[in-house]
Design a protein that fits this description.
The protein is mostly beta strands. The strands form two sheets. Strands 1, 3, 4, 5, 6, 7, 8, 9, 10 and 19 form a ten-stranded mixed sheet that branches. Helix 1 crosses helix 5. The longest helix is centred in the middle third of the chain and has 13 residues. The radius of gyration is 18 Å and the shape is globular.
Length: 316
């Protein structure tokens, strides 16, 4: 494993985070409910995760970067089990967003992480999904990662929330009808930034877009021949879609970057109706509904921060 840096995060009480979230969300949604609840059993549908909850030695892990694309580090492959050991949490459960291993799949793919790393005595349980562009008609294909590959690898970047997967208290967020400009995740992240300033707070969790539609992108199966430096470079490479609820989203966000070259928010989603990918925002503000469960992280790990280079457009 390459260089790893870590920091302690500011960890407010769940009740305090509820109030902070509520203050930001009420500026952006017509109906807002935020409370501390027992986490639903995440092994059940529609989640079908390998663990019941989001608690226990929680960490945020930022691995690699979209900058790897322009630094010609397209062969950068990471392994979730190695990451678990690097953050001192063998057997950790990971959720989040990143790029699937091209070496494993033979193509680019959006990775929707839901995987429990292996231990000395137990194998990994990988229930991650991948979203790819169908080569025949340009539509979205959603597949279980285990149906395509037996490894636990991923490619040049990921943003992950890790924990022991224990049940317990979490923050439930339920909002309807967007009235502002920020997307669901950005609204919560910015509320933390406004309240805590340079005290970095990290959050991970899962949410469902229950009603409405969303703007989603997929990476094409092949990389472009031109460098991706500005956002418009990325936009002419990526494939954009409007996709339908219900969409199950895995999200990681951090309120402040303490000098580690972090990606502050990243969300990928999957569905049982062959739609998913990288979430931007909803496109039906008058009808959209979100329901999410979140928990703060105690520690922040930065793995394989890439060399300084041009900032890459929105990736993966």
């Amino acid at each position: 494993m390459t260089e790893t840096e870590h920091r302690s995060l500011h960890v407010p009480s769940l009740e305090e985070i509820c109030e902070v979230f509520k203050s930001g969300l009420q500026k952006n949604y017509a109906e807002v409910s935020v409370s501390v609840v027992d986490c639903p059993d995440l092994t059940q549908r529609p989640y079908c995760f390998p663990v019941k909850g989001l608690r226990g030695k929680s960490r945020i892990t930022d691995v690699g970067s979209g900058r790897n694309v322009n630094n010609k580090r397209l062969d950068k492959v990471y392994n979730i089990n190695t990451v678990a050991n690097e953050i001192n949490l063998p057997g950790a459960y990971f959720l989040g967003a990143g790029a699937a291993s091209r070496k494993s799949l033979g193509m680019n793919a959006e990775m929707i992480f839901s995987v429990q790393a292996k231990t000395a005595n137990t194998p990994s349980v990988n229930r991650s999904y991948i979203a790819t562009v169908n080569p025949s008609d340009g539509s979205c294909d959603i597949d279980r990662y285990r149906d395509k590959s037996c490894d636990d690898d991923f490619m040049f970047l990921s943003n992950l929330y890790a924990c022991e997967g224990k049940p317990g208290k979490v923050i439930e967020v339920n909002v309807k009808r967007r009235t502002g400009q920020d997307n669901f995740v950005s609204c919560m992240r910015k509320s933390l930034t406004d309240h805590y300033g340079e005290k970095a707070v990290g959050i991970g969790g899962t949410f469902i877009i229950q009603e409405g539609k969303a703007k989603i992108h997929l990476m094409p199966r092949e990389f472009p021949t031109y460098p991706i430096i500005r956002s418009d470079d990325a936009d002419r490479w990526l494939k954009f879609y409007e996709m339908n609820a219900p969409l199950i989203c895995q999200s990681v966000f951090v309120s402040h970057d303490p000098g580690l070259d972090l990606r502050l928010e990243h969300t990928h989603c999957f569905s049982y109706h062959q739609e998913g990918g990288h979430y931007y925002t909803d496109t039906t503000p008058e009808t959209v509904q979100y329901l999410g469960y979140f928990h703060p992280a105690e520690l922040l790990y930065r793995i394989d921060r890439p060399p300084v280079g041009p900032v890459t457009g929105e990736q993966s």
